Structures are given as structure tokens and as C-alpha cells.
Amino acid sequence: MSDEYVDTALPPAAPAPPPATGGAAKILVPLAIGGAVAVALGVYGRLHEPTNIAVNVAGFSGPLAAKAWLATGAATLAVVQLASALVMYGKIPGVRAPSWIGTLHRWSGRVAFLLAVPVAIHCLYAVGFETYEPRVLVHSLLGCFFFGAFTVKMLTLSRKGMPGWMLPLFGGLVFTGLVGLWLTSSLWFFTTFGVKF
């Protein structure tokens, strides 16, 4: 037996906790980046000299018709996104999420975004950020808002440890922005010029 004294009255020292990762920074970084995207688009759209020329998509009578139909496709897929999210998270009573609902949700979002990009390029390059009437001003603001909110949503989706409320909140804001864009552009086009390709 050893003569060494062992103090058994004190528990062993607990390991030091890991350094704090900054809960506020997890939220603020995506918000700052999304805000920067929205502001950058607005500034570019305002300072850029509009060309009034945009590449037309084959099969449409002109750039406005192409823009209206692409935005309609994106808005329709946004409704699919909303419905599939509600099913995935069990928010529709009596509806059980099928195994393919996540795939539908992801791919409808990807295709909706791909349809929205040429519309945004047309708006920014050919027209710019315009303010000459309330509908156009609201449309310009919604365009910047949509891409800023989309950026926040994508950054929130890919980061671990984000608060559970952020993804549904920004998913809802992206949906609202896209529907608002559709109302101030495609719906206006169809009611002004008729439903045509």
C-alpha cells in the first residue's frame, strides 16, 4: 500500500466547456448577407443604365410574355413548395407525408429558382430599379426583398444549430415575396395585354 495521500472528498475537475459559438452571430450573419444581397441588387438596378433590351426566350412573342410565363411557373412551384412543406412538417391534419415529399419539395424549389433567375436578369439588365408608379416601385422592392430573403433561407438551411423558427419564417417570406412579384408583374401583364404567349 502506498503512503501517498489521495483526496477523495473532491470530485475530479470537469473538462472546460467548449468556447461559445456565438448564437447571435449564427442568426446575424445570414441576415447581414441577405440584406447585402437585397441592397446590392437595388443599388445596381438603380445605378445601371437600363438597356431596354433583353434576350427573349424561344417560343414567346416577346420578353414581357416570356417574363410573365416564367414568373407564373416559379409562383406555381412556390405553391408546391408551400404545400409540400406543410405536409412534411405535419401541418395538414390527416395527411401523412409520403416518402417522396422531400424530393418534391427540393426539386420544386430548385426549378422555381431557375425560372426566377432569367426574370430577374431581364428586370435588372433591361429595366433596372424603377419608381415611376406605385406598382413598379413595389415590384422593384419585392424583387430585391425576394433575393435577399432567398439568400437568408439558403444560408439558414445549410447551417447547423440554427433556431427552428428561422427556416419556416424565411421560407414564408420567400413565398410571400415571389407571390407579390407575380401579382405586380405577371398578373398585371395578363390583365393588361391578355393571356398570350
Q: Helix and strand layout, with pairings?
A:
Layout: H1 23-47, H2 63-88, H3 101-127, H4 134-158, H5 166-184, H6 186-193
What does this protein look like?
Helix 2 (63-88) packs antiparallel against helix 3 (101-127). The chain has helices at residues 23-47, 63-88, 101-127, 134-158, 166-184, 186-193. The protein contains 6 helices and no strands. 29% of the residues are buried. The model has no long low-confidence stretch (mean pLDDT 83). The chain starts with 22 loop residues before the first helix and ends with a helix. The protein has 197 residues and is mainly α.
Key terms for this structure?
197 residues; mainly alpha; 6 helices; 66% helix
Work out the strand percent: under 5%
Low-confidence stretches: none
Tally of separate helices? 6
Approximate helicity band: 55-70%
Give the helices and strands as they follow along the chain: HHHHHH
Distance between the termini: 95 Å
Shape: globular
Radius of gyration based on Cα positions: 24 Å
The helix-and-strand class reads: mainly alpha
SS elements, strand count: 0
Mean of all residue-level pLDDT scores: 83
For the biggest sheet, the summary is: none
